Amino acid sequence: MRDCRSCWRWAVVLLGTIVALTGCTYAAMQRLSLDEQAEFHIYSKMMTASQGHTYLAKASPAERTAYLRQIGLAQRFQALDALDREAVLSGIPRVGMSAEALLFLWGEPYYTAGDAPRYAHWFYLGSSLALAEYGNQYSHFGNRVDVYLVDGHVVGWVDYPLDSPSRKRRLL
Q1: Whether the predicted pLDDT of 21 surpasses 50
Q2: Is pLDDT of 150 > 50?
Q3: What CATH number is given for 92-168 in this structure?
Q4: Higher pLDDT, 161 or 136
Q5: How do the domains of the chain map onto residue ranges?
Q6: Dihedral sign of CA atoms 65, 68, 69, 74 in order
Q7: DSSP tag of 98
Q8: Sheet containing 143-150: which strands, arranged edge to edge?
Q9: Would the pLDDT of 93 be above 70?
Q10: How many Cβ atoms sit within 10 Å of the Cβ of residue 122?
């Protein structure tokens, strides 16, 4: 019985911490200008949680931009092809975009098969419409998007419900 109480206390502390950090992130986002919120949206799917918190904790726009350069995200985004940058900014994937641009657009896939420089199959959770806004949605089990990459570029994607029979298909 005593162990159970201890577990409940730790669970409450953990849940409280998660709620507090989420609230802090939301509050930090609200203090950014609209241009900075748009900039954060571009890079956020490529950041770890700690990088996102560090970015938002910076006092000025100049410090935030310097931090993006320090962690290499600004350089990676600028290295994208002009059409890839446009696709990321518009939030709409396109056939032919690079795997790197897809990472900026939708974040890390929840599962991959193959080798992206040659042939790969990336799996995302959530609908293709919501992925650009929120990134991979690990808690969303309604839809899955399968992305096909050849030579490091997107050749197509399929968006379907997880309970669909097509889920049982195998790539050969």
Answers
A1: no
A2: yes
A3: 3.30.1450.10
A4: 161
A5: 2-77, 92-168
A6: negative
A7: B
A8: 111-115, 119-125, 143-150, 153-161
A9: yes
A10: 24
